[in-house]
């Protein structure tokens, strides 16, 4: 597994089609965390819920 130096360890936007999602690790009010493979590396994938879904959540929980 390759590691990025701290200065390069940042969020990156990548093409979703490059990911092979292995399993869902957790889900919360704002999105889902999954384990995935990207370019032969294991990565964490954070999939955010849409703003429309967020408004629904906010309306449910004052």
From TrEMBL:
Alphabetical list of Gene3D superfamilies matching this protein: Phosphorylase Kinase, domain 1
Domain of life, source organism: Eukaryota
Name used for this protein in its record: 20183_t:CDS:1
